[in-house]
């Protein structure tokens, strides 16, 4: 091929250097995105972010690079505390939602639930309300007792923040807090329709259950809360600054809930 031996090896070494340079650049970016997400992003999300930056790279390659770097996203431990008290004689709303989790517009369907948060200073419970369209946490409260006031506070915060029009569907489990007279009166005052899961069927409220699972995997099980104040500050930071505004969701086209919700605001303005 009329190529000298020295010329061939010079070309080969240059090519290897380019490959090594590309790998080094990618590994630097992988490490950046991993730590920027506070060790919460795995290969799929990091691959997407790198592709957005213009890199042509496969998820498998990023997975191998993460192994080489010793980077592993947060992994949850199995630990569950029962937070649903459905052994009561309070009125139960019909299951209007019926696992129809796809909603075309924000503030049409909200789902609510309570979860346990371990803390050395004492037990804590988190009541959350999620918008099914944007996956945004529109209201939440953290408290020491699993009371009606706790879930009412989350609902009032959500209503104050979003001011939804009448007819919004509010879905929850059959817990006594959501079936209480005070909670039902508040839903009526806000002109919201009530919907409740079937007894013992966690899939009927899967979206908010999924959020609480992600919260525990990415925050609660990665840290040890020594005080209730520390728990509140960490959860506030996670929900308001990371989950709602920064964390990308594959179901939202790799946008954060707030960025996805902004698309609907632009349509209104147009």
UniProtKB/TrEMBL annotation:
A Pfam family it matches: rve_2
SUPFAM superfamilies, per the entry: Ribonuclease H-like
InterPro entries per the UniProt record, alphabetical: HTH-like_dom (IPR025948), Integrase_cat-core (IPR001584), RNaseH-like_sf (IPR012337), RNaseH_sf (IPR036397), Transpos_IS3 (IPR048020), Transposase_IS3/IS150/IS904 (IPR050900)
One Gene Ontology biological process: DNA integration
GO MF annotations, alphabetized: nucleic acid binding
Integrase catalytic domain span: 102-265
Domain of life: Bacteria
Ranges in coiled-coil conformation: none
NCBIfam families: transpos_IS3 (NF033516)
PANTHER family: TRANSPOSASE INSF FOR INSERTION SEQUENCE IS3B-RELATED, TRANSPOSASE INSO FOR INSERTION SEQUENCE ELEMENT IS911B-RELATED
Function noted in UniProt: Involved in the transposition of the insertion sequence.
Protein's name in the database: Transposase
